[in-house]
Amino acid sequence: MNEKSAELGLKHTHFSNASRSLFTQAEFLHCKGYSTICRYALNKYPVFQGTCGQSSFTMAPTDYHPEGTYIVSHDYMINEFHRLLLHQLPRV
Q1: Across the chain, where does the E strand assignment appear?
Q2: Of 10, 15, 89, 91, which has the fewest beta carbons less than 10 angstroms from its beta carbon?
Q3: Under 8 Å between Cβ of 69 and 63
Q4: How much is the average pLDDT of 17-30?
C-alpha cells in the first residue's frame, strides 16, 4: 500500500497494516489520499463501481469459502440512501 501510495503521488499517507481492518497509530491518510485511492480503484477495477455503493454484496465462491462470502455495509450514508430509494419506488 505504501508503494502504491507513493506511485499515486500521495506524500502524506502511510499504512502500517495492509488489511485496513486493524488501525494503528502509525497510519495516516488525508481526505485527498482517500479520494485518490478510491478514484484509482474505481478506474482500474470496474467491479468496484458495482459493489461500493451497495448496502450488501455476496462475493464469488472460493476454495476457502465455497458458498461465497456475504458482506454487509455499516456505512450510514449508503444504507440510508438505499432505504430512502426503496421508499420512493412505486409500489407494484
Answers
A1: 56-59, 69-72
A2: 91
A3: no
A4: 60
